[in-house]
Amino acid sequence: MWPDNRHQAAVLRLLRDGGPRSRAELVDAVGLSRSKLSVDIDRLIERGLVDTVGPAASRGGRRSSLVQIAEATRFLGIDIGATTLDLAVTDGEMRVLARVTEHTDLRRGPAAVISQALELVNKLRADTGTTRFTGAGVGVPGPVSFREGVPVSPPFMPGWHRFPLRETLATELGCPVLVDNDVNIMALGEMHAGIARTFDDFLFVKIGAGIGCGIVAGGQVYRGATGSAGDIGHTSVDPHGPICVCGNTGCLEAFFGGAALTRDALVAARSGRSPHLADRLREAGAVTPVDVSTAATDGDPYAMGLVRDGARRVGQVLAGLVSFFNPGLVVIGGGVAGMGHALLAEIRAVVYRKSLPLATGDMPIALSEMGDQAGLVGAARLISDHVFTG
Amino acid sequence: MWPDNRHQAAVLRLLRDGGPRSRAELVDAVGLSRSKLSVDIDRLIERGLVDTVGPAASRGGRRSSLVQIAEATRFLGIDIGATTLDLAVTDGEMRVLARVTEHTDLRRGPAAVISQALELVNKLRADTGTTRFTGAGVGVPGPVSFREGVPVSPPFMPGWHRFPLRETLATELGCPVLVDNDVNIMALGEMHAGIARTFDDFLFVKIGAGIGCGIVAGGQVYRGATGSAGDIGHTSVDPHGPICVCGNTGCLEAFFGGAALTRDALVAARSGRSPHLADRLREAGAVTPVDVSTAATDGDPYAMGLVRDGARRVGQVLAGLVSFFNPGLVVIGGGVAGMGHALLAEIRAVVYRKSLPLATGDMPIALSEMGDQAGLVGAARLISDHVFTG
């Protein structure tokens, strides 16, 4: 099923990323002679990995010169969030054909969550008429050993430590599977079809229940020596700050993670300092980070203050990382990205003031374009990179 | 002069890194058929890039099966420091054949410093009987546009901004030249022949006049989007700290850079809080970071305190970077590395306590093995990578 060699792999990736092309264009891009590459393209067509396409196909016996990734190609993206299961089926160009989202509770353990996911997969299969997937990518909200395809000591996920997630899903789905940290697949999604399309070196900062960072270096996700790269949630921003679940004090997440924001919102609601959050608490019986986001967007001064304080601390951590990593772009995504301009303005203010001018010269700081599709498209992209290897 | 193709390049790199090998070993390592690779090896011998070697060479007409990088191969490493010019000639396996160090003053501008360097090159040429260099690598103590081979706004180097250093030296030396930041070449040196030999992802932290970090990701130096990656000297460690030359407050260098350490040593000497430094000031009329190092090694409590305070702040910055980058190894080098165990112990204490356990699990923090040769060997290695490309 996989390509025979690196030229075939190059053809598949070009068609995935750029859509249908003529044989002549592919010859130019791959840099092989026309006659040699034709053999490879014919082989890909023979094996059903590539289709001929377009008007040229109707010219009777003459072979078309336009080819595309086989229309039957189907990738599965599974984005396991802290409280949601999000799945999508894409075509060979990573376009989402169908998507389904359901609430979940990771604390029920891997068996229950996988069985829930497989039911959703069946639904997606039916919706899209998919009999087999070319591959599936999976994002997990915690550290992952990428090589082994297992979560490693994920906080908030009891029972998942070293669970053979890749192996189990590969058996169940009958296709190649890769498992990665959720922030890494979000970065990949943004690189494939979002604002990072033209960048080789960039950071994707996810602010949600947790705070993490996807690192792309030289067009590749950088995972670090043991796969934990990008963990910025536990960088100390104030030695006298609140105690964090990790045991240290003053971590970024202890100020601006989902739990911290919920805690601060509750205090603001109960004390009446935020009328908006107080109303919300009365109505719903609880307040969430999304409520803070809504209140801030509606102009509630206290909620805006919470967003700005959190953003300032994110900026503080990012300032050092921008000087260190010198990215071409910083993307802000995740649930809290809904806070939009106030969040972005404060992060920018701190980073542009505190990072080295040389590092920030042409560097944009921007909100994710892919929004809540980043992880799904990225998961599909991840496994397609793997499958489209010669 | 350069290899014709990537197989020849692979042979040259294998011989550079592993020394003489038989043709059979090269066939295994390169993964080409024996007959095909023999053509490439013969071509390399013909062109004088590779020699036959060893006892087999004496077996009359029969061609030896042991080959090595041509003995005539000569690389030049130029390590431009804040106050010194350090040059070495290496053979094709990056062994230093001759070396010369001289005091310099970068403020005299590029023309004067280059002319001083070229005199030293002539001395090295004479010492080693070198008529031509295969290539030269150059390290500069400031930001560099690697692609263009020019320094970019280097602090303490008036007149060097965008000076065409690579071009000038390539013309003068008549060989390919690459220019890089000094910390990057130190990292490369440590990777070639030092403690980082077996690591693909590591950080090389240089503590000297400035504080900087060489980043190696996937076996390659990572330079960032605009070449300034690794600048950690201006990471804020205390918002209420001293004002830094960069205009911000509380930067790492404002606490522990060469100038900061000199300032603190002078205060300690004048106030008599450090008898050792007071003696030194009386004798020499000045105190330097090296004096602090010596005093600390001799057990002067105040000097030891200065080292520990500085090391703690380095550790504070590294703790965040280790969580972010998840390196397999952290190497501490540069002038201040002479402070040895006290420095290392304090850095380790902070990093191991503050970084994520997942990131520090198997991660050693160690002193540079290459010492003051790291930059020279790294500069030679840098240009050899460039020249040995197919």
Automatic annotation (TrEMBL), chains A, B:
Domain HTH marR-type: 6-56
Keyword Transferase found: yes
Record CDD domains: HTH_ARSR
UniProt keyword annotation of Transferase present: yes
Organism superkingdom: Bacteria
InterPro entries: ArsR-like_HTH, ATPase_NBD, HTH_MarR-typ, ROK, ROK_cs, WH-like_DNA-bd_sf, WH_DNA-bd_sf
Keywords per UniProt: Kinase, Transferase
Gene3D superfamilies for this protein: 3.30.420.40, Winged helix-like DNA-binding domain superfamily/Winged helix DNA-binding domain
SUPFAM superfamilies for this protein: Actin-like ATPase domain, Winged helix' DNA-binding domain
One Pfam family linked to the record: MarR_2
Family as reported in the entry's similarity comment: Belongs to the ROK (NagC/XylR) family.
PANTHER family the record matches: GLUCOKINASE, ROK (REPRESSOR, ORF, KINASE) FAMILY
Name this protein carries in UniProt: Sugar kinase
Organism: Phytohabitans rumicis
